[in-house]
Each structure stands twice: as C-alpha cells, then as structure tokens.
Structure to design on (615 residues):
C-alpha cells in the first residue's frame, strides 16, 4: 500500500458518509479510478455500512420471555423499593390499591423462598417460570390457597361448611381455618387429604402419578392407596397411585409462606408469556399534573373541599388536552364526596354516570367504588355488590372483586344467614 | 385515589423489561454484531435498570434513560472483553455465494456485516463505541459526547481514528485473502 492509498483510506468512511468537501471528494474519486484495491475497499465499506445502517435485528418472543424470566429475581427487590417510595409519595391511598402492592412484594419474597428450596440442589440460576407464576384461589373466607401457575383442579363447595378441592397438576399452599363444623378435603392422585385446620402444601409432580403432602402447622390426615397417616408439622410424604407412601423432602415449602402472605390477597402477575403490556394512558400535560398533585396533597391534609374544587375545575374544563382526564377528575370528586364529605348519594350518582361513560378504566374503578360506598353502613350490601361483579364482570374484575371480598373480611356465610344487619346509612 | 395512583404509577419492573427489552436487545446486537451472544449484557443492563428504577426521577424519558444505561453497560462490557475479543465471531463460517441472485445478495450482505463487525472488533473500545454510535447508530458527535461524557473534540478524533483503522484493517484483510486465493490457485 502506497502513501496515497493510506491517505485516501483514512478518509474513505467520511467519503461514504458524504462528509468530505467537494475538493477532497474529487481527489478521492480520481484516486479510485486508478486504484483497484482502494476501489474494492470503497465498495466493501460502502456495502458494509449500508447493510449495518438498515440492519434491524429482531427479538423473537420466546427469546424475550427467557430473558424476562432470567430477571425474575431482580423484580422483587425493585418492586419492593418502588412500592416503598410510591407509598411515601402517594396519598391516603385507596384501601384497594395499596394492599395488593404489599401483597405482591410478599408474594415475590415467598416465591423466591420456594424457588430456593426447590432449586438449591442443582443451583440452577434460572427461575422456572411455571413455579414463578402464582395465583390466589380463595374459595371461601376460611380457605386460602396460593397455587403455581400451572395448577389445575376444581374447587367445589358441596355445603356451606365443606370445601372439596380436586387437584390434578401443580402445587398449592393451603391455609385452612377450622371450627364451626368446617371441613376441607383435597383429592390428588393416590391421596385424599382431610384437614381439620392447618397450613399445608400439596404438590402433584409433573408425571401426575402421586401426591406430595407437607405440613407447616397443625395436622393433616392423608388417606393413601395403602396407608392412612396423620401428618404433623414438618412432616412430608409422597403418596403414589400404586404402592406405599414414602418420605419426601419437597413438601416443607409451606413453612416459608408468612401469615401476611396467605391472608393478604395479591394481584398476581400473569404468566410472562401471556402478559399483555397495557397501552399506557397518555401523559397528562404538566399543568394538569400539577393540579392533580395539588388536589391530592390537599385531600391528604384533610382539605377535602379545596381538593374537590380543583377536581371540579378539571372536570368542567373545556381544554381539549385535558379531556382524557376529566373522567378521572370526576371519579376523584365522587370519592371525596362519598368517603370524606359524607355525601354518598351524590357520590353514587357520579359513580353510576362513570360506569356507563366511555372510559373503561374509570368505569371499572367506579363500579368498585360504588360497592365500597356501602361498606361502612351495610357490609352485606357491599358484599352483594361485589358478588355481582364476581359473577358478571370480565375476568380481571372478577378476580379483583374476589380479592376485595377477602380483604374486607365480610363473612358472606353470616350474611347469608342474615346475621349481619345494616347499621343504618349515614345522613347526607 | 386509586386512579391517580394508576395514572402516575411507575411501570412495574416486568413491564419495563417487556416494553424496552426488544429495543435494548436490538441496540446491543447492533453494537456487538450479528454473532455476539448479548444475553448476559442484556441482563446486566436490566439489572442496572431495575436497581436504579426506584430512583428514576422522570427528568428524562424512560427510553432515553435506559438507552444511556445500555450504552454504559455495553461500553464496560467492551472494555472487559477487549483483550479477548470473544464477542466478535470469526468469518470462516460464511457460506459460498449461491447462484440464486437474491440469496447471493443476502449472503453478500451478511458477509459484509460480519466483515464490518470483525473490523470493529479490532478497534479499542473507545474508538469502537464512537464509530458504532456515529456511523451505525447515526448519533451526532455532540450526542455521543453528551451520552458518554467525553469532550466533543475527543469524540471527533476517536471517530476519525477508528474509521482510519477500520479501513486499514479491511485493506489488509482484503490483501491477505487475495494472497490466499492466489496461493490456492497456484498449480
């Protein structure tokens, strides 16, 4: 390579990127006409950069899912920190929203404990997604279950006092409060588990040929195909479809679940594969953001009327940029009226309007808030209101309504028996 | 108040990864080349993102903030792996061009991309990242200077030197492969 080639090579990329002045370009072009090696270099560089500039590597969904799963251990610490910071910044947060966040953090902590138990032997660094997906099934006030995402089975309630669960797949940690003649029976391959009041763990291994039972607290009677055992806290046994029961070390995971976790319903993230990322609501304009923040701060300090005036201003604003947020402002007005200013009828009227208005997110919230209005005066009416959402709402609403029923701790059995009477609606 | 929280709530960690993961992965592949296994770098980026997420002040867009973290992590990775140059694959797996015109063009494109990233792999990490960001990612010198926290003249000279070294390497490679071909055809 001669001196001229070296000099022209140094500015070749700049030439390809059209950054040279006309004189430099002309000089280089003249050199390219007389130097085959530099012309080949120019062609090679030109093609390489052209391809690289338009190269848009694709990430397939399965690969992304794997990467998302690998990061599961880090979600817990991040969401715990953010829930702490958001609880500092948020207001007299709704009883509905704050709990699930705390529950979620606890759920993740418990999940990690289980994963640690299950995978410590081979030190697999990747959390198995099936185990990571957990969900709550609370068939009654006195039976709470945390199940794996792949859990399969049915929950039946043949009588008000009896719950019958048939499991065919996955694992479940069950917390059962006995007494008042209540009974719980769980059936799995090769075992029938009779529970008097305890916390225990049931797992059906993937091949589905046995049931593993581990007890965290209390006692559980298990009828296997050959044996009947009374398992006490700390014990764990596997009951095969054929043959005798044998000791198992897999069933002690229930002990890792805290009381708070089992009694606190959680909003569970669905399976990573199926998680649709919700389209975010448009960002509010900065001025509107400030107004909401100010109203929220006022409400937090008990200045409900001032906060109400701000929300009313937003709700009645004619500014088009604020239009998507008017429904939210009206919703907040109604909450203030209903829960702070003791005007439940006015609140109910607004909530009812919002339910039939166009904003689906606000409509869902308004439906729940309408049920919540009765909570202080007529818990059974609140429960019935939520029950109607459970039976009529879409899946997300149904699930949240169930969790709210559990959170509000309304004994629906007692409501059924008319043991809880309304205490009288407060006057407006 | 639930809706207000919803409105202003930060995205959940998993939402962040799912939303921004594909863009980060694309950016990492474009920075490390078609054959590089960037899964570990991706994980390092999001570990850093998730660790810092609670402190994210929304002074910039989340996307910009994640882009900055991606650059920093990728740069650290390049520094650590500069000696081994392990992430830049060799070129000997390129197939022979086919007679089919489209396929041949695709193969040539693929080969050109591989040659370019192999050449970039010869640069030190400072020049490499400067050339990648400027000539592949299309960032201006000023943007690179701001993102990497380097003086503008330094970035400009790194781009210039990186380009010159890249051209030199390609020339040398072209000459050696021609020599090899010539040797192969000698009876």
């Amino acid at each position: 390579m001669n001196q001229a080639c070296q000099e022209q090579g140094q500015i070749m990329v700049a030439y390809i990127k059209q950054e040279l002045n006309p004189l430099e370009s002309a000089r280089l072009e003249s050199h390219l006409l007389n130097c085959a090696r530099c012309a080949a270099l120019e062609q090679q560089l030109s093609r390489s950069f052209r391809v690289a500039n338009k190269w848009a590597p694709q990430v397939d969904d399965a690969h992304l899912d794997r990467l998302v799963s690998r990061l599961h251990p880090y979600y817990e610490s991040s969401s715990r920190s953010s829930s702490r910071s958001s609880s500092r910044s948020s207001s007299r947060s709704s009883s509905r929203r704050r709990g699930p966040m705390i529950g979620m953090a606890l759920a993740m902590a418990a999940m990690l404990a289980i994963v640690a138990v299950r995978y410590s032997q081979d030190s697999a660094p990747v959390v198995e997604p099936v185990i990571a997906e957990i969900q709550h099934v609370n068939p009654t006030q006195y039976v709470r279950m945390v199940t794996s995402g792949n859990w399969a089975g049915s929950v039946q309630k043949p009588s008000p006092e009896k719950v019958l669960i048939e499991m065919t797949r996955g694992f479940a940690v069950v917390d059962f409060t006995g007494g008042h003649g209540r009974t719980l029976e769980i059936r799995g391959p090769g075992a029938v588990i009779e529970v008097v009041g305890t916390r225990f763990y049931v797992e059906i291994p993937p091949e589905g040929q046995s049931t593993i039972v581990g007890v965290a607290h209390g006692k559980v009677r298990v009828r296997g195909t050959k044996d009947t055992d009374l398992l006490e806290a700390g014990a764990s046994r596997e009951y095969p479809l054929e043959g005798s029961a044998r000791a198992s070390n897999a069933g002690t995971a229930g002990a890792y679940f805290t009381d708070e976790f089992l009694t606190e319903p959680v909003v569970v993230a669905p399976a990573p594969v199926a998680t649709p990322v919700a389209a975010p609501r448009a960002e509010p304009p900065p001025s509107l953001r400030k107004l909401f923040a100010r109203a929220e701060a006022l409400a937090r300090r008990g200045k409900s009327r001032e906060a109400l005036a701000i929300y009313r201003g937003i709700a009645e604003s004619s500014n088009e940029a604020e239009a998507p947020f008017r429904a939210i402002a009206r919703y907040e007005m109604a909450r203030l009226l209903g829960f702070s200013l003791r005007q439940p009828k006015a609140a109910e009227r607004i909530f009812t309007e919002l339910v039939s208005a166009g904003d689906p997110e606000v409509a869902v919230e308004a439906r729940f808030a309408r049920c919540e209005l009765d909570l202080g005066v007529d818990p059974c009416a609140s429960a019935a209101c939520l029950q109607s959402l459970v039976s009529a709402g879409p899946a997300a609403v149904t699930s949240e309504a169930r969790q709210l029923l559990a959170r509000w701790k309304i004994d629906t059995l007692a409501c059924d028996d008319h043991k809880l009477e309304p205490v009288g609606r407060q006057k407006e | 108040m639930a809706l207000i929280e919803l409105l202003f709530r930060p995205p959940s960690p998993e939402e962040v990864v799912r939303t921004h993961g594909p863009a980060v992965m694309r950016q990492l592949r474009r920075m490390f080349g078609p054959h590089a296994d960037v899964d570990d770098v991706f994980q390092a980026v999001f570990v850093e993102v998730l660790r810092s997420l609670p402190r994210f002040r929304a002074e910039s867009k989340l996307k910009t903030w994640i882009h900055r973290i991606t650059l920093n992590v990728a740069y650290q990775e390049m520094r650590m792996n500069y000696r081994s140059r392990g992430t830049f694959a060799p070129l000997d797996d390129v197939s022979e061009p086919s007679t089919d015109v489209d396929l041949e063009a695709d193969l040539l494109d693929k080969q050109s991309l591989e040659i370019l990233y192999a050449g970039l792999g010869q640069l030190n990490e400072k020049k490499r990242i400067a050339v990648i960001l400027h000539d592949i990612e299309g960032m201006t010198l000023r943007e690179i200077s701001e993102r990497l926290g380097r003086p503008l003249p330094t970035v400009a000279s790194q781009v210039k030197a990186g380009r010159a070294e890249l051209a030199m390497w390609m020339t040398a490679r072209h000459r050696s492969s021609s020599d090899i071909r010539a040797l192969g055809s000698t009876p």
